[in-house]
Fold Cytochrome c556.
Amino acid sequence: MKKTTVLSAALLASALAMPAAAQMSVEDQIETRQSAYQFAAWNMGKIKAQAVDEEVEYDEKQIAAAANAIAAVANSGMGTLYSRDSANDRADDTRLKPNFFDELDKVQEIAVSFAQESSKLQEIAASGDKAAVARQFAKVGETCKNCHDNFRAE
Amino acid sequence: MKKTTVLSAALLASALAMPAAAQMSVEDQIETRQSAYQFAAWNMGKIKAQAVDEEVEYDEKQIAAAANAIAAVANSGMGTLYSRDSANDRADDTRLKPNFFDELDKVQEIAVSFAQESSKLQEIAASGDKAAVARQFAKVGETCKNCHDNFRAE
């Protein structure tokens, strides 16, 4: 158990070190991660409106597309957008707290559940069962909240 | 031919009128569409770095995830983020040109090719043929450019 956790943190650390694209500036990292989350939040909002609050008519295709979008964010390898210098003790216009880099095990755990719960949401959305979508939406929302409670400043 | 085009524009117009979520403010529409495109651009950048410029080692999983992300943006129903009041003759902090709303046929045509070319990129990325990915990346890039040349201010 201990070993896996340590390994996961090591993997994350190496993901942080090996960029998928050319090295990005701290400003670009911040803007890009904020964009990714905002795109996810817009799509969460559609599912909330249609499956949870039921204030907009349920549209299976829109819900499936929204779930695809959230899963695409969760699986996009956002670790490369987090360099130590991009936390709010060193950079402007960001709410990332520096403890993120002291708790990479926890970060990894939350990132993995975000990916798993959104992949599940994607499957359920494809089947079109509104109540099941609403339940799984809540699970995804918990992973967002868990990360924000730990690593995002007010 | 004429009929289909007119119908498509009508469909787009109705998509603009019928939100997938609760009505958004003009500011939220602008921020959200900019976020979606920026998230797409980040993922295009990864494919460019790995499959076109070859400055970063090709990683099939990262490329597949990036292609999923671009397709998710293209299929996310961004039409609802474009209200007439959100063009740059009426709103701040946006580069959307008002002619967008006079040329809905062309908008629709570009939006459809963006969706089709990115879905193709998604398929090709899953198979992992680097040269084919590079070719299809260029096709997707043309749809981005086509939209910007017509509807995005400098």
